[in-house]
Amino acid sequence: MSLYRKHRPMALRTFMGNDATVATLTGLLDKPSRPHFLMFTGPTGCGKTTLARIVAKELKCSAVDLQELNVADFRGIDTSRDIIARARLLPVGGDVKVWIFNECHMLTKEAQNALLVVLEDTPAHVYFLFTTTDPQKLIPAIRNRATALGVTLLKDDAITTLLERVCKRERVTNLSDTLKGLIVEYSLGSPRMALILLEKAIGAEEGTGEEGIKQIIQERAEAIKLCRALLKKEPWGRVAIILKNLDEDPERIRRAVIGYMRSTLLGSKKENSQAFLIADIFARAPFYELGRDALILACYEAVYG
Ligand SMILES: Nc1ncnc2c1ncn2[C@@H]1O[C@H](COP(=O)(O)OP(=O)(O)OP(=O)(O)O)[C@@H](O)[C@H]1O
Ligand SMILES: [Mg+2]
């Protein structure tokens, strides 16, 4: 299991940073008339899904009554209808039923409109926990109905504390301050990114040396940035900027991209055609000969192919 999954906080007490949000949340959960529709907003890898799962736990939702949906699980209006129908049924394992919707902004307008019925008149035993990086893409009726809670990137010292905590639990004692600092720098405040980079550093072959690990961390960080942009089909201008800043060996980037797409595919329950397309393009042939040209062409095809 990847480090960031293994060390996902299970309680508010171990959730780092975001003090104001955690305080607000605690207050909301303590109230007898809790809101039944919460929306966690903020950048990727900062704890939106983590918080939603913690809330489900705090609400004492049993596993059978907890549904977590990701983008790929949405089937437009049918998904909405299915939820509305099932929300009426009483929970079987406890007192509440919880739906966690990740990346809810990906729902079609029709599906969002269909859901409004149940969001406006939620049964007493049901809670909806939405997470999104782009709340502005939701229809206003949904956005206005939710109790929004912002999750933010962590400050450097919080990332350092997180790294130290995870190292201690993993019994890693030889991570130098220089490497720790480098991970903090490249994580850009994202706890998930920090733990992915830490995992790379820990997993480096014995005898790699500090310089070698440094290079691994840098390459990994840049490659992840590129992969995210390709997966989201960001405008070419943005992909081109990442490519300009990326002066690592193209063949190593190629392998890193395939690795990232493989774990994206294995991590999702349903199809992810963009991840598959990218993996397919990058798996065709090594970049040894054409080097950077091959890398640029492959990225272009991934965005427009
Ligand atoms: N505030 C935090 N404190 C400690 N660890 C965190 C925190 N936020 C995130 N993490 C770590 O980062 C991982 C990813 O977090 P999570 O899945 O909640 O992010 P997210 O905001 O839902 O991202 P995305 O928008 O990509 O879905 C967690 O598994 C956990 O290890
Ligand atoms: Mg999430």
Question: Helices, strands, pairings?
Answer:
Elements: H1 3-6, H2 19-30, E1 37-41, H3 48-58, E2 66-69, H4 76-88, E3 97-101, H5 109-120, E4 126-132, H6 140-145, E5 147-150, H7 156-169, H8 177-187, H9 191-203, H10 209-231, H11 236-245, H12 250-267, H13 273-283, H14 292-304
Parallel strand pairs: 1-4, 1-5, 2-3, 3-4
Helix pairs in contact: 4-5, 7-8, 7-9, 8-9, 8-10, 9-10, 10-11, 10-12, 11-14, 12-13, 13-14
The site of adenosine-5'-triphosphate has 23 residues, from α1, α3 and α9.
Task: Describe the structure using short key phrases.
2 domains; alpha/beta; binds adenosine-5'-triphosphate; Rossmann fold; five-stranded parallel sheet; 305 residues; 56% helix
